[in-house]
Amino acid sequence: MYLDWLMNNPDVVWAATLEHMRMSLLAVAIALPLAIILSIASVLVTPLRQPVLWIVGTLYTIPSLAMLAFLIPSQGLGLRPTLILLVMYAQVFLVRNMVTGMAGVDKSTIEAAYGLGMNTPQTLLRVWIPMALPVMLAGVRIALTTVIGLAVLGGWAAAGGLGEILFMGISSNNPERVMAGVVAIVALALVVDAFMRALEMLTPMSRARRAART
To answer: I need a surface site. Which of 24, 30, 189, 212 has the fewest CB within 10 A?
Structure first.
């Protein structure tokens, strides 16, 4: 059975899963503030929008393994080059969804907020971001699940995680070990995706939209 290695080594798989999740969460936590700054700048300064979206989109077209190989000579093996890679690739989903969400807020709503005496930071915090939050969270969900998949390359760069199980299985021609890594990665991505979808549904805007349909 291809799942024998998984059944016989649950502690190893669980430890690697936790390490993989910590690495993925750390990457998104680093990427998120940068994405928020880029997104807000793109929405407030319209001429910046297309160049920013083009740059983050271009980053994603670079093959991930090639980028990691490019980073290793200057950053060494381990967590650092893997984190840089994951932060870069998360930007396309975070920035794109944040810009789309905030740009999609009705202009009359924004004008009404300014008419009530709100300044730009107040309008961002009280109107723009709350109304765009479901779309922004969708970007976080997609970025996190993508990062979980890409973090497999951390095993190739000696950063640990489930990728280590996967690559060790490949190098030792051990299909059972490879399957254990694949199953754990897929299960982790599905659980995180379901959790983030539930979180999206709990936002005030999502609840208001569901109430409007009934």
So the answer is: 212
**What is the model's pTM?**
0.88
C-alpha separations of 107 from 94, 111, 127, 128, 200 in Å: 22, 6, 11, 10, 23
Give tens-digit pLDDT for 159-170: 989 999 999 988
Block residue for tokens 């798989």? 13
| Contact (Cβ atoms closer than 8 angstroms) between residue 109 and residue 127 | yes
C-alpha to C-alpha distance for 91 and 79, rounded to whole angstroms: 19
Q: How is residue 128 annotated by DSSP?
A: I
Coil, helix or strand for 63?
coil
The Cα-based distances of 12 to 17, 94, 157, 199, 208 in angstroms read 9, 32, 19, 30, 44
pLDDT tens column, 61-107: 889 989 999 999 999 888 999 999 999 999 989 999 999 888 888 88
Question: Is the pLDDT confidence value at 1 over 60?
Answer: no
Domains of the chain: 4-206 (1.10.3720.10)
Token pair listed for 126: 């009280």
Identify the CA nearest to 142 among candidates 196, 207, 65, 199: 196
For 174-209, the pLDDT digits (tens) are 889 999 999 999 999 999 999 988 888 877 666 666
